[in-house]
Specification:
Elements (H helix, E strand, L loop, with lengths): L12 H14 L12 H8 L3 H13 L3 E4 L3 E4 L4 H25 L4 H11 L1
Antiparallel strand pairs: 1-2
Helix pairs in contact: 1-3, 2-3
Length: 121
């Protein structure tokens, strides 16, 4: 797992952690039944609090993405990937709508906006 925590992003660290693990599951990089790093080892690797890591895992467990086995750790569950992908896509579409609205307000043409997107991509 390749997780990056940005302490100055304004997004709580547990949310960053949960979102990145969720993205790994949706992308198929973490498979059903796969053991996740222990709370303590992940916290140590990322140099964050054990409490923060625990909260991220609890959030993922509430969403049905992972489950815990006492004494063994946390494992990837069998989530509805198509639902998660759709939910992700809706979020992306909402961000794009805002971006397009901002571009229009700034006076950009559609071609200018597409060029900008292509450059950034």
């Amino acid at each position: 797992m390749n997780i990056k925590v940005l302490t100055k992003s304004g997004v709580p660290i547990y949310e960053q952690l949960a979102e990145q693990i969720k993205a790994e599951i949706v992308a198929g990089n973490l498979k059903q039944g796969e053991l996740l790093p222990s709370i303590r080892s992940l916290a140590a690797d990322l140099k964050i609090s054990v409490i923060t890591t625990k909260r991220a895992y609890e959030e993922l467990e509430k969403e049905g993405l992972i489950y815990s086995v006492a004494g063994k750790g946390f494992f990837v569950d069998n989530p509805d990937i198509s639902y998660l992908e759709e939910k992700r896509n809706v979020g992306i579409e909402e961000n794009l709508e805002k971006w397009i609205d901002d571009a229009k307000k700034a006076g950009l043409t559609k071609d200018d906006a597409i060029s900008m997107l292509n450059i950034i991509w």
